[in-house]
UniProtKB/TrEMBL annotation, chain A:
PANTHER family associated with the record: IMPORTIN-13, TRANSPORTIN 3 AND IMPORTIN 13
Main subcellular localisation: nucleus
Family: Belongs to the importin beta family.
Keywords: Nucleus, Transport
InterPro entries on file: ARM-like, ARM-type_fold, Importin_beta-like_NTR
Localization: Nucleus
Name used for this protein in its record: LAMI_0D06392g1_1
Automatic annotation (TrEMBL), chain B:
Pathway: Protein modification; protein sumoylation
Keyword Nucleus in annotation: yes
Any single biological process term in GO: protein sumoylation
Descriptive protein name: SUMO-conjugating enzyme UBC9
Species assigned in the record: Lachancea mirantina
Length: 983, 157
């Protein structure tokens, strides 16, 4: 704050006089003067600030530095009716330094309600402001010990006196003063918690907490709990943030009140009757917010002792009374199973998830040797009950109730979060219960149900959701016993499929609640089917039923509303997963798949484009592995799919939004027909040469037909970049595959180049050319062995230098595209670029001009070009000679241009240019010293920095440390400071 | 891992379990022996309602260095994630995750995931991390939107 000792004293005097004046008026006429309370509060805040200044360690000792207790000063000022400077002229030392005895303090606060309120208010403001200051101001910890020694004593006296008065009163006190006591207590709890780490130790609030517990349980009649909710909130904050503030004995007492049971011993149920009455009062009167606060408080309290409970329950180190523990667990389970709707009405079950998770983690972390002989059975018996409770709590029946009662989505989100938290708990409990007590039981329970109603399906859904979580962590193909369990009862899969079907049947309703729950049914069911897809590879007898059901469900989707669209998406994702995983097992269904796909791509089909594309990919997976019947059969299937797509396009070729997704379908088919790396079907491998031969000759002319289709669509949509992108994807599909892999889209280089040139000449360069060039790069990479410098010249001319030259040079993105293309050649086969006719006539001079570019990606590309040209591991001996000649003649100009561009660029782009300088130092050390010595003075006048840079560059010899030297030079030349550490 | 790092990560886990934004998930991964790996978390970022991203919950991996919280965690989407400020490797380019920029040790997991969620629909074209999404966002917004929606379907909620 920067106040001097001379400034603090008069400010203190002025403030306290003004405060005393206002307070005295307020005490006399509280109702009239109430509006001045905000000024009183501000003056109290000012006094707090002055107090902090006065206690500053660095302040010289004077009258104000003796000020230890603002609360006492305040009481003294009011007692003396201090309303002018003269009145205190002889007594300032007394007001600043004297203490107020307990009897006087209590006498003052008892003198009037207003006086009491003002003292409580000042006490609250003092600690609140100090708490705020603590976060921002360093070096005030010494103040806490003075505070502890003086203010704490006065404040506790006032607070506890007030609390005791409430305990002893015979009537309900709902006054402003009554509320102020609890605000003051809350502020002191926050302050003592924050200041706990000082050398003076923690300020003890035990007496206050004792009184709070008494007041919490204070009850006038059976139905009145005047202080319970506010005190439970206070204790809730304490247990959430700093539970050890409450001493052990009081915690034991609170445990008895909350639970009527104790971890370690049988209890007398002291106070628990009150708790039961209070809960009943909240439930009967539907005070759900207060019930939530109680749940938060109780569970936070329980979590303080989770590890202790874990040790007592499960380890040999404990000699706790097992009957008491049984009783304790029983109460906790009852609390978890609180008989109201979670989230909507009760939060005990919601918050207890965390408690059980902690207990479960605690058990899982125990070392085997210290677990009691019956520890694992005990743990299993507890967690089995927890599973049962939560399977019921997480059911969509509760979500339905929430949906019916609340338009706001918040509670739904909270409920969904609750379900997710339960799933995490299930995952953790699996470590205790294992498959036999959890996974197998869930599978069996799903199979045992004969659902006839929505309520039954809620149960199935909850169990499927839990099972999906557990199965997601397993590799089913490596767990034969899980497959046995899943396959042991047909009704299991039947019910899962039924869940999906029921969701799909119900989604057509207009009722938003039903729509939401239907989507959940489909989501849970399809996700489980996808998760257990590997099971169908082991046991496929129900795969057909499953796929048929999914198809029927998909047939009913028409994207008529958000729910319908979502359901369709879930179904197609499930189908795709099943097809990908079970491609062998689904071969017999291929004709059905082809028929479904044909219907999907028809113009009148209502399924989404995404579904059409994913389904075509799914179908492609099955065609891919259909090798047993030889390539001819595969060719026929591919032809059928293609013809369906062609037919679909021909139904509305003028509709671009219809044509584009169908072309993407074709691309998806191409992707699906890429043989997976781990594909080890022996029949297929044996027939590989036949497949290769077949697709080379392509007797059904599929490639020709596809090309004709693409040419046709291009003729209509030549400037549509999205169509060009898909065309390029289709044409380049096989380019990333090894030559020996057969593929129906394996076009030869000549065909692809012809395709690219046609597209290039007709496209809108700024949007279409990038896709064309990506494919051109793939061509270069694939055919690099046979490419010649003349081919490179041809490509560069056709795609960049002829038709599009002006726009390529004007548009930094296209310029960068061109540079990247050249870089890709330098990366794969540099000789074809170095020996091309464009190398010295265009690339070198133009790319030199591009070095001072402003756009980051261009800078990145062009500096990479020069770096690759100076130093390239792919260079042959001849390439080295060619580039050496080039760099030797170009060196001074390259060095000057690079340094000039570096000098003018922004700091974040320095490293790009630094890379060029580093390779020049490393490869052309002798010459580079001369080049840079000549170049630097032309850039700016900073001789010492230039000299230092040259020295550092040569010391670092092109290592990464050179970049630091360049940065230092750049900063020095721009008169910018070094901000890096250690500089 | 330092004790400070461990303590802070335990605190983060506790805080997250007690209070996290709806629709998000985050939890430590498991080591091969089944124990919890507090230095590597898996999390999901839901797209904000009313945006192109709304249909998806996007998976991220959060890796905390040994000197966390002095140093920020590394946040990664799956490789190839389509967004102008996500590197091809999936690493997120966000100032609060950059030690040299806005990282502060007090930044919590909740703030990080909310920051990443904000980034999804508010890309910063001045800090490009990948070319395809950046180029489309800058020059062909229609294509950008189409690809974002397609990606959202891939990661559907």
């Amino acid at each position: 704050m920067g106040l001097t000792e001379e400034q603090v004293l008069p400010l203190f005097q002025g403030n306290i006089i003004h405060l005393a004046k206002l307070c005295l008026k307020y005490i006399q006429q509280p109702a009239v003067e109430a509006r001045k309370l905000f000024i009183i509060k501000k003056l109290m805040s000012n006094l707090t600030l002055l107090y902090v200044s006065a206690r500053d360690r660095h302040m010289a000792e004077n009258e104000i530095s003796l000020w230890k207790n603002p609360l006492d000063s305040f009481v003294l000022a009011l007692n003396q009716q201090l309303v002018s400077f003269e009145m205190a002229s002889e007594g300032w030392r007394h007001i600043i330094g004297d203490s107020v005895p307990y009897s006087d303090l209590v006498g003052f606060v008892s003198s009037s309600v207003s006086a009491n309120l003002l003292v409580l208010l000042f006490s609250e403001i003092l600690v609140e402001d100090l708490t705020k200051m603590h976060a921002h101001k360093t070096g005030i910890s010494h103040l806490h010990s003075v505070f502890h020694e003086h203010v704490y004593v006065s404040a506790m006296a006032v607070m506890n006196f007030n609390l005791q008065s409430l305990v002893e009163s015979t009537s309900l006190d709902g006054s402003v003063e009554g509320q102020e006591i609890f605000r003051c207590v809350g502020a002191w709890i926050s302050y003592t918690s924050m200041a706990a780490n000082g050398p003076q130790g923690r300020m003890d609030l035990s007496e206050t907490f004792d009184l709070l517990v008494k007041l919490m349980c204070w009850q006038q009649a059976d139905t009145e709990f005047p202080y319970a909710s506010v005190i439970i909130k206070i204790f809730g904050d304490v247990f959430a943030n700093d539970p050890t503030m409450v001493n052990f004995d009081l915690r034991c007492h609170i445990e008895e009140i909350f639970l009527g049971a104790s971890k370690g011993r049988m209890t007398t149920n002291n106070g628990h009757a009150w708790m039961l009455r209070y809960m009943n009062h909240l439930v009967v009167n539907e005070f759900y917010e207060e019930l939530k606060d109680l749940a938060l408080c109780v569970v936070d309290f329980l979590q303080v002792g989770t590890l202790d409970l874990c040790n007592k329950l499960f380890t040999i180190a404990s000699d706790a009374d097992m009957n008491a523990l049984d009783q304790y667990i029983k109460v906790l389970l009852q609390m978890t199973n609180f008989s109201l709707v979670p989230v909507l009405q009760e939060f005990f079950s919601v918050r207890m998830v965390d408690f059980w998770l902690d207990l479960c983690d605690g058990y899982n972390n125990l070392v085997g040797e210290i677990i009691k002989p019956n520890g694992s059975e005990l743990a299993a018996s507890i967690f089995v009950q927890v599973v049962e409770i939560y399977l019921s709590k997480m059911g969509l029946l509760n979500k339905q109730k929430i949906l019916h009662s609340d338009d706001d989505k918040t509670m739904i989100h909270e409920f969904d979060d609750f379900r997710n938290a339960i799933l995490d708990l299930m995952e953790s409990m699996w470590s205790v219960l294992g498959n036999d007590k959890l996974t197998d039981v869930l599978v069996a329970s799903i199979g045992q149900l004969s659902p006839t109603s929505t309520a039954d399906m809620f149960q199935v859904e909850a169990m499927c959701l839990a099972l999906n979580k557990l199965m997601g962590d397993m590799t089913i193909s490596e767990c034969p016993w899980i497959c046995d369990t899943l396959g042991s009862k047909d009704t299991f899969l039947h019910n899962v499929i039924f869940l999906v079907q029921m969701g799909c049947d119900q989604k057509t309703t207009q009722d938003v609640v039903v729509q939401t729950l239907s989507t959940d049914f489909v989501k849970t069911g399809t996700q489980l089917l996808g998760t257990i897809a590997d099971f169908f590879c082991q046991d496929s007898k129900q795969l057909g039923t499953c796929i048929d059901a999914l198809f029927r469900c998909l047939e009913g989707c028409s994207n008529m509303n958000e729910c319908d669209t979502k359901v369709e998406l879930l179904l197609i994702k499930c189908i795709t997963t099943l097809c990908d995983t079970c491609r062998h097992q689904l071969k017999p269904y291929l004709p059905n798949f082809i028929e479904v796909q044909r219907l999907m791509v028809e113009g009148k089909s209502q399924v989404s484009d995404f579904t059409k594309q994913k389904f075509t990919r799914s179908l492609g997976y099955i065609i891919q592995c259909n090798a047993t019947d030889g390539p001819e059969v595969q060719g026929q299937y591919v032809l059928q799919v293609f013809e369906a797509i062609l037919q679909g396009i021909n139904q509305a070729p003028e509709n671009r939004d219809h044509v584009l997704p169908l072309l993407i379908c074709l691309s998806e088919l191409g992707t699906a027909l890429i043989t997976p790396e781990d594909f080890d079907d022996e029949t297929y491998l044996a027939q590989l040469p036949k497949f290769r031969e077949y697709w080379t000759t392509d007797p059904l002319q599929i490639r020709v037909k596809i090309k004709a289709l693409l040419d046709f669509t291009f003729s209509r949509y030549s400037r549509d970049s999205e169509l060009i992108e898909v065309d390029c994807l289709i044409f380049g599909k096989a380019l990333e595959l090894p030559d020996e892999d057969p593929h129906f889209l394996r076009y030869d280089m000549h065909e692809i180049m012809h395709f690219l040139m046609t597209r290039s000449s007709g496209c809108e360069p700024s949007t279409g050319l990038p896709y064309i060039i990506y494919l051109l790069e793939k061509v270069v990479n694939h055919y690099k062995a046979s490419l010649t410098p003349q081919d490179f010249d041809f490509m560069l001319s056709k795609f960049f230098l002829e038709r599009h030259f002006a726009i390529v040079m004007a548009d930094p993105d296209l310029t960068q595209l061109m540079v990247n293309f050249v870089n890709s050649i330098l990366d794969s086969k540099p000789a074809i670029a170095l020996n091309s006719s464009h190398f010295s006539s265009f690339l070198v001079p133009e790319f030199l001009k591009l070095l001072p570019a402003k756009e980051r990606f261009t800078i990145g590309a062009v500096t990479k070009f020069w770096t690759k040209l100076v130093n390239n591991k792919k260079f042959s001996r001849q390439d080295e000679i060619t580039t050496r000649e080039c760099i030797m003649s170009l060196g001074p100009q390259l060095t000057f241009t690079t340094i000039s561009a570096l000098f003018h660029t922004q700091r974040s782009d320095l490293n790009y240019y630094a890379d060029v300088l580093r390779v020049l130092v490393a490869r052309y050390g002798l010459q580079f010293r001369q080049w840079i010595t000549q170049a630097l003075p032309q850039i700016c006048d900073n001789g010492p920095a230039h000299q230092l840079l040259i020295e550092k560059l040569f010391v670092t010899r092109g290592s990464r440390a050179a970049a630091n030297a360049i940065l230092e030079w750049w900063l020095s030349c721009h008169n910018l400071p070094q901000l890096s550490p250690g500089q | 891992m330092s004790s400070l790092c461990l303590q802070r990560l335990q605190e983060e886990r506790k805080k997250w379990r007690k209070d996290h934004p709806f629709g998000f998930f985050a939890k430590p991964t498991k080591k091969t022996d089944g124990s919890m790996n507090l230095q590597k978390w898996e999390a999901g970022i839901p797209g904000k309602d009313g945006t192109l991203w709304k249909e998806g919950v996007y998976p991220i991996v959060i890796e905390y260095p040994d000197d966390y919280p002095s140093k920020p965690p590394k946040v990664k989407f799956p490789a190839g994630f389509y967004h102008p400020n996500i590197y091809p490797s999936g690493t997120v380019c966000l100032s609060i995750l950059n030690e040299d920029q806005d990282w502060r040790p007090a930044i919590t997991l909740k703030q990080i995931v909310l920051g990443v969620q904000d980034l999804l629909d508010s890309p910063n074209p001045n800090s490009p991390a990948q070319e395809p999404a950046w180029r489309a966002f800058s020059k062909n917004i229609k294509e950008y939107e189409r690809k974002v929606i397609e990606q959202a379907r891939k990661y559907t909620k």
